[in-house]
Amino acid sequence: MRTIEGSLIGSGLRFAIVASRFNELITGRLLDGAVDVLTRHDVRHQDIEVYWVPGAWELPLIAKEIALAGKHDAIIALGAVIQGDTPHFDYVCAETSKGLAHVSLDQRVPVGFGVLTCSNLEQALVRAGSKSGNKGADAAMSALEMANVLIAARKAAKGEEY
Ligand code: INI
Predict the structure, then answer these.
(1) What mean pLDDT do residues 105-118 have?
(2) Which residue has a Cα nearest atom 4 of ligand 1?
(3) Quick one: which of 30, 41, 60, 142 could link to 78 by a disulfide (CB 3.0–4.6 Å)?
(4) What is the CATH number of the domain that holds 101?
(5) Ligand 1 geometric centre to CA of 121 (Å)
(6) What is the tally of helices (H) and strands (E) in the chain?
(7) What confidence tens digit (pLDDT) does each residue in 20-38 have?
(8) Ligand 1, residues 23, 57, 127: which to mutate, most atoms within 8 A of Cβ?
């Protein structure tokens, strides 16, 4: 039996974070959480690039552009979509999540999904660094593990040491 898994070692890996300005009170905290996880796992500051977009809807396009450039081992997408009185929320959530999934699968790059989809601001706040942790940090942790497991899987597929 052989097991292929990703370490949580970040040295030498490069990450792009795409964050949306909409609900920046929340997304700023998600960004802090993501950067904190990466740097605590030895990712160098110069190996982290942060891109800002207007809203969650715009995350997939910039994520795709980053993926196509091929300079990063993983992308972390951060956003906060909060329900209003109209179905707008559903469209933004659906297309953002679908778009990011497409980027990941089509471009074969890990995309950490740190997009909150909440009923109200309070729900978002508890997921952005208080009672329910920090989903930006969680997305960064997943991206770190995925970057490493993808490297290992590619080596294993070529019969190399991983
Ligand atoms: N964008 C968000 O990131 N969060 C929201 O809660 C939100 N709401 O509620 O409207 C939102 N809308 C903007 C959208 O992402 C686009 O930026 C906008 O439609 C322009 O393309």
Answers:
(1) 98
(2) 81
(3) 30
(4) 3.40.50.960
(5) 14
(6) 5, 6
(7) 999 999 999 999 999 999 9
(8) 57
Residue pLDDT, tens place only, 45-93: 999 999 999 999 999 999 999 999 999 999 999 999 999 999 999 999 9
Domains: count for the chain: 1
Tell me, yes or no, whether 37 lies in a domain.
yes
Nearest-atom number in ligand 1 for the CA of 96 is 15
Joined together, the tokens standing for residue 92 give 């933004």
Compute the distance from residue 21 Cα to the ligand 1 centre, in Å: 9
In whole angstroms, what is the distance from residue 141 CA to residue 144 CA? Answer: 5
User: Does residue 66 lie within any of the structural domains?
Assistant: yes
Cα 9–Cα 98–Cα 147 angle in degrees, nearest 5: 10
Does residue 75 fall inside a structural domain?
yes
**Torsion angle (degrees, nearest 10) of CA 96, 100, 106, 109:** 170
The alpha-helical segments, DSSP class H, found in 72-134 are 88-107, 121-126
Which 3 state secondary structure label does DSSP give 80? strand
CA of 82 to the centre of ligand 1 (A): 9
Quote the ligand 1 centre to 51 CA distance (angstroms): 16
- Is 72 catalytic? The answer is no
The protein residue with its alpha carbon nearest to ligand 1, atom 16, reads: 55
Let me know if residue 91 belongs to a domain. yes
